[in-house]
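Example (one chain per record):
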Amino acid sequence: MVMTTKNEKKELVVVQHIFDLDNQYETLFHASKDVVNRWFDSRTDISVAN
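Predicted structure:
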């Protein structure tokens, strides 16, 4: 069993937190990209209709 000091545990928690944030940002990024793509699609649909 590996013994970790309190400071090492804190660092592990921070790293885990950063990974969680990174995943959230990635999800947000993909969601916003989807919205932007849909917005562009609707814009092009309108311009084609006109």
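Caption: The chain has a mean pLDDT of 81.
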